[in-house]
């Protein structure tokens, strides 16, 4: 059989297949989603995957994500929705995973093993950034996130990442104390989820995909998302936010249309271990 996507690697092909399934469910039930992060940048710059990217990112408003959970039984039997409340969950708050492919990834104490995935980043409301409420919420969220990272430290925390001093101290603390042995991952996940949903996005001017790599730096005006608009991605059309240029400038810099040098093309260091695709 002819390969429809000879320019894509196995991870990208698997991710695209999952994305198509998720989009189909969203269309059937009127759920809002946006391609996000590197997937959004790929749609704008490459009309598909960034050639060296190894996963798919979408973002969903909290209320739409909660509805998606109600329809997860419509996923094929070889896919499942993995959320932060589930035992053994790793990384971002939710993924749709394909059980037919197992990968190994990360630069933590251990190489994490999980099924190939599409990340779902949840869009939650946050207070206006110039208020004391935002500063207080930031402290609460960062504490909850730190607790969750401690709970799965050996599999999840990148030891090679460049970090500010305070983060390096927390990493050292976790390495010395083995704190993950006493922090329950499921309880820490539930607490992080509870903190993240504190503010209703419908009542806020600003929102954030709090689980993203920039943490509270993911904060952006809600109007950037808007109703969304279609854009080509590989052989399908996907929804992206109304103001993708503003997002890309904020997160990738003014030269986002220019690919970075070879040594800056970051990924998750993913290796396919087994595949039945």
> What is the rounded Rg?
18 Å
- Give the CA-based shape: globular
Q: Would you tell me which CATH topology of the domain at 10-125 and 209-275 applies?
A: Beta Polymerase, domain 2
CATH architecture annotation name of the domain at 10-125 and 209-275: 2-Layer Sandwich
Instruction: Give helix and strand order, one letter per element, not per position.
Output: HEHEHEEEHHHHEEEEHE
- Highest CATH level, the class of the domain at 10-125 and 209-275: Alpha Beta
Helix fraction, binned, reads 25-40%
Helix count from the secondary structure assignment? 8
The count of β-strands is 10
Structural class: alpha+beta
Strand content: 15-25%
Largest beta-sheet characterization: 8 strands, mixed
Query: How far is the N terminus from the C terminus?
Result: 14 Å
Residue stretches low in confidence (pLDDT < 50, at least 5 long) are none
Overall pLDDT score? 93
Description:
The chain is of the alpha+beta class and 277 residues long. Helix content is 35%, strand content 22%. The chain has a domain of 183 residues: Beta Polymerase, domain 2 (2-Layer Sandwich). Helix 4 runs antiparallel to helix 7. It starts with 9 loop residues before the first helix and ends with a strand.
